[in-house]
Design a protein that fits this description.
It contains 12 helices and 12 strands. With 306 residues, the chain is of the alpha/beta class. The strands form 3 sheets. A 5-stranded mixed β-sheet has the order 4-3-5-12-6, with helices on one face. A 5-stranded mixed β-sheet has the order 9-8-10-7-11. A two-stranded antiparallel sheet has the order 1-2.
Length: 306
């Protein structure tokens, strides 16, 4: 461990000027300091190095460097140049050649709509050193997971985005009514009575509930639907519907992936939709890797069709 206590890096900049100029007045002008201020710094530097560094010239004019000062000049200049390079170097990220592991927290719906497309084109944009992992999104633990660096991005609806996080909207979503192809109900437009009478599959992301957002809306209309099944994952529903006569209300972009087995209809009532966001920790706001991945997600969202 390097012990830099008591050493002000600005003193090293002043020392560099003093040793080069061997003159307090000229060095002070170069550093835009007053001569008394630089003289005070020289006194501190003498204490730190245990050496006078600059001593009166035998000629009586100006100052001359001590042997210690002469030995310091070259390595001090090298150190300051390296430090300047560290400070001025802009962080970069090259997905073709860099090594990086990204972890995205997302619901199964987000993975189905955005994750699959991102993974399909991953090899086109990233080299073998860049890995991508999806984990389940958990609103209650997102802060701790971000703080520990366990996740890089969170993808979810507005209710999943923590108030402290940086976020970007990916797209707006709406709900549609779906049934299997060849459903005995036929292909007539859906009416409210039929909607309420059919057996519905509900997605309860918290698990086990038979009352969801659509039920709240129907309740405000003085109506209720018959929820027969409750599952925790959106991606289970198309498989269930394709094999039964149950119906469901699902986000339109998710449904678009299953049009070969499902028929889609407008709801028989006005229902508020939601928006999907990607969120990240504020410390990664300017991180080139995070910026790159956020742009890829935004492009995938723009290219996806409802």
């Amino acid at each position: 461990m390097i012990d830099m206590r008591g050493i002000d890096l600005n003193l090293l900049v002043s020392l560099d000027a003093l040793l080069e100029e061997a003159n307090v007045t000229r060095a002070a002008e170069r550093l835009h300091l007053t001569q008394p201020a630089l003289s005070t710094q020289l006194a501190r530097l003498r204490l730190i190095f245990g050496d006078p560094l600059l001593i009166p010239s035998p000629s009586g004019r100006g100052m001359t460097r001590s042997a210690r000062a002469m030995a310091l000049m070259s390595p001090l200049r090298d150190v300051l140049k390296q430090l300047e390079a560290v400070v001025r170097r802009q962080p970069t990220f090259d997905p073709r050649t860099d090594t990086r592991r990204f972890t995205l927290a997302a619901s199964d719906q987000a993975i189905a709509v955005l994750g699959f497309q991102l993974m399909q084109s991953w090899a086109e944009h990233a080299g073998p050193g860049v890995q991508l992992a999806f984990v389940a999104a958990e609103q209650s633990t997102s802060l701790d997971r971000f703080e520990r660096g366990e996740i890089d991005l969170l993808i979810g609806s507005e209710r999943m985005v923590p108030a402290w996080a940086k976020a970007r909207k990916l797209y707006d979503e709406r709900f549609v009514f779906v049934q299997r192809k060849g459903h005995p109900r036929g292909l007539a437009p859906m009416d409210l009575d039929s909607y309420c009478a059919l057996g519905h599959v509900l997605v309860s992301t918290s698990g086990g509930s038979f009352f969801g957002f659509m039920d709240e809306h129907l309740q405000s209309l003085g109506r209720a639907r018959r929820v027969a099944l409750s599952v925790q994952h959106f991606t289970l529903v198309p498989e269930l519907l394709a094999r039964t006569d149950y119906v469901s209300t699902l986000p339109s972009r998710l449904v678009a992936r299953y049009r070969d087995v499902l028929d889609v209809f407008e709801l028989p009532f006005e229902a508020r939709g939601f928006s999907f966001f990607t969120a990240w920790h504020p410390r990664n706001q300017a991180d080139p890797g995070s910026v790159w991945l956020r742009e890829k997600l935004a492009q995938v969202a723009a290219d996806s069709q409802a």
